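tool=predict chain=A
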Amino acid sequence: MNDNIEVKVTGKNVNNYIKWLVSKKVNVKKINILSHNEVILIIDNKYYKLLNSYSKTYKIFILKKYGKLKLLELIKKNLIIIISIFLSLIFLYFLSNIIFSIDVISNDEELSTKIKKELENYDIKKYRLKKDYEYLEKVEENILNNNKDTLEWVEIENSGTKYIVKLVERKKEVQEKSYQYQSIVASKDAIIKNIKAISGEKIKTINQYVKKDEVIISGILVKPDQTNIYTKAQGVVYGEVWYEATIEYPLYYQEESVTGKSKNVISLYFFDKKISLFPYKQYKQFKTKTQTLIENNYIPIKVVKEKLYEVNIKEEIYTEEEAIGKAIELGKKKLQEKNDNIIEFNEVMVSDVENLNSKIKVKLFMSVTENITKIVEVKEEKEQKEQ
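tool=predict ok
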């Protein structure tokens, strides 16, 4: 029914009027005769002017418009509102492309201040227009090249009307201490499991218990005449160390895996109400990654691009025994992440288990073999006396 109109014709005898329309070859889409002097017609809009030319005694009333005519009529009636919304969206788009704040995420305050000043050199500062993705990538690369000694990674993330600058500081390599004369001691209380001495004198044996800072390979060699020879003790010592840990583990487990299917959706948020601009078939289970296209802190309207990723959710319910096994593995993993010196796990004992309905709390004692080598300086007695 594109460009059609529904009209009501009233007059002395509408049958005569209909005959006249037929003689004029007017394409009448629908006729509904209400009475001898009243009829409703649906015709093409181009015949509207012709309707009034039959006789002045017939009156024509437009009841309804279809297609483009209806849309144009709607626009005319709401023109002021439409213009206001259009101007508001333009204003909103303009504001959403202005940066109102820059947050630098780093534990080093001095480094954060330095990077903020460096960003200003690239015109990235408050109350300036946002930069495009390619420009930000170049800035990230330049900042990284200018701060190779302090930064491992830089990312400038666009979040609404602010930039979030994420910094990953470069870990400073800890140089192993080395002295002209030195001994090797225990870095912690342990039972010695292996001593690999390259130089120096071994004064401890395998399976012997040592306390922290107790000498294992000495850099002082005692001659038969009881005089000392000073040397640089070198080697590695491995010991058995015990750790205590408390691990909580759920009895109910849920795991997500992405299927590879995804779709893009444009949504409008108005006062926290979501309106999808285009209808779509939603995944049964999915996770969402959002990107704000238009947003402003002063107007409660936000246009968001959402990428939906279909996921499969795997759910498992563990028995207490199974959960204890999982807790042991988790405890070993956490300890390994904290301590790079651990070579292997010897034994893990469960000393206590507490059931907390939805999870269990497990107390563990873990025996590990680790590198307990610690280097300390040795000074000659002559130097000590002179001091």
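The two ends are 107 Å apart (CA to CA). Residues 17 and 355 are 90 Å apart (CA to CA).
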